[in-house]
Amino acid sequence: MLRARSDEAKDERRQALLTAALDEFFEKGFAATRMSDIAKRAHLSKGAVYLYFDSKEAMFRALVENLASPNLELIERIATNAGSLREALAGVCRIAPMLIRQTDLPRIMKVLVGDSHMFPQMVQAYRTELIERVLAMMSGLLKRAHDAGEAEVPNPDLTARIVMAPMVLSALWEAVFNSRHEADVDLDQLFQIHERMMLKALEPRSAT
Amino acid sequence: MLRARSDEAKDERRQALLTAALDEFFEKGFAATRMSDIAKRAHLSKGAVYLYFDSKEAMFRALVENLASPNLELIERIATNAGSLREALAGVCRIAPMLIRQTDLPRIMKVLVGDSHMFPQMVQAYRTELIERVLAMMSGLLKRAHDAGEAEVPNPDLTARIVMAPMVLSALWEAVFNSRHEADVDLDQLFQIHERMMLKALEPRSAT
DNA sequence: TATAAATAACTGACCAGTCAGTTATTTATG
DNA sequence: CATAAATAACTGACTGGTCAGTTATTTATA
Q1: Residue A186 neighbours by CB distance under 10 Å
Q2: b (16+ CB within 10 A) / e for A128-140
Q3: Helix or strand or coil: residue A148?
Q4: pLDDT at site A206
Q5: What is the pLDDT of residues B167-207, one digit of tens each?
Q6: A203 has a chain B CB within 8 A of its CB
Q7: Minimal Cα–Cα distance from A83 to chain B, Å?
Q8: Which of A135, B96, B118, B180 is deepest in the core (most CB within 10 A)?
């Protein structure tokens, strides 16, 4: 393998290793993944991997950190840019198919669920810093809409879970069942229907 | 350990081994679970486990089979006994907290998701014989309600997914985040809200 | 040539599954 | 009933193989 001397080249190599690691973790699970296979996939020797990461677990941690923040920011941007619950819901439902089909989110989620027992502290961090934040954002959105008379939401926290459930579950479905496109679901249509149903369900009793 | 001579005693021992195996698989994952630990938990030696099961994988298969059919039957009984979509939905929403809190379903689901790559054929069987059947049941219920004018359901298959999502996801949530009751959710209230939202969302435009 | 990236052989620990031997329990016999 | 023979449930040391992480050595590049 050509040597990576510059910092730039090393960053590239690091990224290539992370990509290879996610592929392997997703295909085989954390425990069953061999460091030599990650190395092979990145066209390196096993020893070289240890020039970039301290351990197998450190690779996994880097992987989760790499993915959490950009996607969280994307979702929060959509929520803050929206002027109303209606708009926010539309934005989230429109972006969800992309997040599920085009990002590594579903694959990371699957590995995180499956090997959650190995990294209890990481799973808890993922929950409080990503999932609970997204739920809190949706809950806030619902609460504000309720107070503004835009919607009728007796319990914003639980309602937020109901609103988000189809999206989160679809991501996991994609990772678990659809790796060979054997269990395809029309996500665009699914979330379009979901959006309509949620709007109708949340409509105030005396609305237009 | 007292020896199991009768068929009855052997069935009991088999069951004890399966219980121990699920505890271990759930706590450590399939790959990281040692047969000797399963044996220890059931107060037996490692060798004895192989008198009851051919292999680690055979134990896991037995575990999934043991759980799938009784729970599937329960859900289908609720659906067939219900006279209307409203009743069926109420039944499903009422039974769901029990299935999530009182059965091994969430723990099995978590292991199945996490180690899905190890048993692709088992995961596919689980999907087609359990999940798709429950979805088909709900879809049929929705379609009949639509035809009877009880509800307005343009796409029963996708709507079924939206109806079931909070329940399936709550089961996984329970298994992944709530093993130490750190992320508790009031499931009774959650599904009560869900039920109300679904009924309102599915209400025909010109309804009472 | 000096340096650091990369390699590959190596180590030590781990574990699924096996099997020769042990022992609790049942059954046959005086 | 007492006891020995037969049975099969059970044990745990062992094998063969795997793999994370280490290190001595090679090699590309500034």
Answers
A1: 13
A2: eebbeebbebbbe
A3: coil
A4: 67
A5: 999 999 999 998 888 889 999 999 999 999 999 999 998 64
A6: yes
A7: 23
A8: B96
| Through-space separation of residue A30 CA and nucleotide C15 C1' in angstroms | 17
Distance between CA A172 and CA B169 in Å, rounded? Answer: 9
pLDDT one-digit tens code per residue, A15-48: 999 999 999 999 988 988 999 999 999 999 999 9
Type of residue at B74:
L
The answer to whether the beta carbons of residues B192 and A188 sit under 8 Å apart is no
- Selecting from A154, A161, A183 the residue whose C-beta is nearest the C-beta of B190 gives A161
CB-based contact B49:B38 (threshold 8 Å): yes
Q: Convert A110-121 to b/e letters by CB count within 10 Å (16 or more is b).
A: bbbbbbbbbbee
Rounded distance between C-alpha atoms, residue B97 and residue B184, angstroms: 12
Please say if the pLDDT value at position B60 is more than 80. Answer: yes
What sign results for the dihedral spanned by CA atoms A102, A108, A110, A113? Answer: negative
| Residue A117 banded pLDDT, cuts 50, 70, 90 | confident
| Helices marked H in chain B | 7-28, 35-41, 46-52, 56-81, 85-102, 105-114, 120-126, 132-147, 156-177, 187-202
Angle among Cα B31, B33, B36 to the nearest 5 degrees reads 135
Given a cut of 90, whether residue A9 has pLDDT beyond it is no
What pLDDT, on the 0 to 100 scale, is given for residue A8? 83
Q: How far is B1 from chain A (nearest CA, A)?
A: 31
- Asked if the model's pLDDT at residue A207 lies above 60, the reply is no
Q: Which residues of chain B from 134 to 193 reach within 8 Å of chain A, CB to CB?
A: 154-155, 158-159, 161-162, 165-166, 168-170, 172, 176-177, 182-183, 185-186, 189-190, 193
d(CA B171, CA B100): 5
Can you give the pTM of this predicted structure?
Answer: 0.91
- Indicate the residue of B124, B162, B189 with minimum beta-carbon distance to A193: B162
Cβ within 8 Å, pair B159-A193: yes
Supply φ then ψ for residue A55, to 5 degrees: -160, 170
Question: Distance (Å, rounded) from C-alpha A19 to C-alpha A30?
Answer: 14
| CA end-to-end distance (rounded Å), chain A | 67
A29 contacts in chain B (CB < 8 Å): 29, 31, 114-115, 117-118
